[in-house]
Amino acid sequence: MRALSHIISVLLLLLSSSDGTLASPTLNHELETRQSTPTIIRYCNPATSICYLEYSWGPSVPVFRVAIPDTASSGTQFDTLLQVIAPSTLGWVGFSWRGRMTLNPLTVVWPNGNTGVTVSSRWANARTQPTLYPQATYRILSASRNATHWTVETVCSGCSTWSDGALNPSGSQSFAWAVSRTAVPQPANTASSFSVHDNYGVFSGSMSLAKVPKAAFDAYVRGGR
C-alpha cells in the first residue's frame, strides 16, 4: 500500500503545477522529502524591478529564476539571466537550458570560499561528466553565502542557442536541474570535476513570465545590482 500511495502521488504531481505547466519530479529520494508541490510564477524583485520566471519546490531544492529581454526572438543569440538560491547543504547545482542533461548548454554552480560562487559552463554528449563548453560565457552579477543558503546571479552569453536547438522566447520552454550534497574538489576552478547528482528534476514554464523590457534588462546586466 505504501508503494502504491507513492506511485499515485508521483502521477498526480506530474499532472499538475501552479499554472498548468509540466513540473516533473525525480524518483531519487536521497534528499529529504519536499514540503510542497512545484510552483512556477512570475517573480518581480521590488529592489530592482527585474522580473523572472521562478521555479521552486520546497526547502531542499534550489529556487531558480530566469529572465530574458522582451525583444528576444527564437533562433537568435540573446543574453539570459539566471539566479540560483541554493540550500547551504548542497555542494553543487546544475541547470539545463533545454530540459535534459545532454546536448545543450549546462550551467553548473557551486560555493567557493566564505562568500563566493563559481559558475562553470558545461556540455554533455552522453550521461558522463560534462566537459567545459566555451561557446557559452558567464558574468557573475552577484554572489553571496550565509549559514542557510548560497546565491548567485549570472548573465550568460551563448545559452539561447546551441548546435541543434534554441530557447523558445515566445512559448513554453523546458528546463532541468540537478543537485548534489557533495562539495567539488577544486571550488575555485571552473574546470573542477564534480560528483554524480543526488537528485534532479524537469519543469516547463511560459517564457512570457521571464520577459523584461530590453532597456531595463540591458541596464541591469551591464551594471548588476
TrEMBL record:
Pfam families: CDH-cyt. Residues 1-23 form the signal peptide. Keywords: Signal. The keyword Hydrolase does not apply. Residues 43-213 form the Cellobiose dehydrogenase-like cytochrome domain. This is Cellobiose dehydrogenase-like cytochrome domain-containing protein. It comes from Achaetomium macrosporum.
